[in-house]
Amino acid sequence: MIDTVMVHVRDLINQNFKNQHGFSENKVVISNLVDLDGSSPLEVDDKVVMFLLNLGEEPSLKNHSSRLGAFDGAGFQSKSPILYLHLHVVFCANFRNKKYIEGLNYLSQIVSFFNKNRIIDTSSFGAGVSKKIEKISFELCSLSFDSMSHIWSSIGAKILPSSIYKISLIAIDDSPMTGFVPAVSTTGENSRE
Asked: Each residue of 126-145: pLDDT tens digit?
C-alpha cells in the first residue's frame, strides 16, 4: 500500500517533468540518501530523491472498536477497524556544484505541482490502493530550523534543499475476520408462543 502510493507519486512527478521539458530520463527516484555504510548511492546523484520520513495514524479517523460488515445474510463479520495513515515524504534536490540551480528548479516545480494538485484521484493507482480511499491529499509541511537540523543529522546526510509533504489518507484494510455475529432471525415475542 505505502509502496504503491510512493511509486505512483514519483511517476506522476516524473511524467510532469517529461511533459514540461521533453526529456526521457527520470529525475525523481525513491531511495535512501545515505547507505548504511555512510556512502551516497550513485543512483541519487543529480536527482530529486524521494523518501519516506515518517508515517502516522490519522487521528481524526481513529476508531478503536471493531466493525461489523454484512456477511451472506446469515450474520455479520467482525473485523478490526480500518487503519488510516498519513505519510511524511521528503523531496530533496541532490544536485551539486554547477547543477545546484537545476536542482532548485526541479524542487520548485514539485512545489508548484502539488500546489496545483493538492488532491489526486486514486482510481488510476491500480490494485495496491484500497478502494475505500478515493483521493489522497498533499500538504506542505513547515518545520523549524532545529527540527530540520535534527532530521538531517538522523539521516546522516548534509542538509540539502528539500520539501516535506504530508500525504493523507492511506487506508490499511487487510485485517482478517475476527468473529462472526449471527443475524437476529426472530424477535423475543415470537419465541414465547
From this structure: 665 656 677 889 999 999 99
CA distances from 19 to 13, 16, 79, 136 (A): 10, 5, 44, 23
Query: Measured between alpha carbons, how far is 160 from 39 in angstroms, rounded to an integer?
Result: 16
C-alpha cell at 38: 555512510
3-state secondary structure of 74: coil
Grouping H, G, I as helix, E, B as strand and the rest as coil, residue 180 is strand
Strand partners, 179: 78
d(CA 46, CA 187): 71
The reported pTM is: 0.78
Boundaries of every domain in the chain:
28-62+77-82+92-174
Q: Are 162 and 145 in contact (CB under 8 A)?
A: no
In angstroms, the Cα distances linking 125 to 5, 25, 30 are: 7, 22, 17
* CA-based nearest residue to 93, from 170, 150, 18, 158: 158
Q: Which residue has the cell 500546489?
A: 115
Quote the cell numbers at residue 181: 455475529
For residues 41 and 161, give the distance between their C-alpha atoms in angstroms, rounded to a whole number. Answer: 18
HSE, side-chain direction, 13 A CA sphere, residue 188: 0
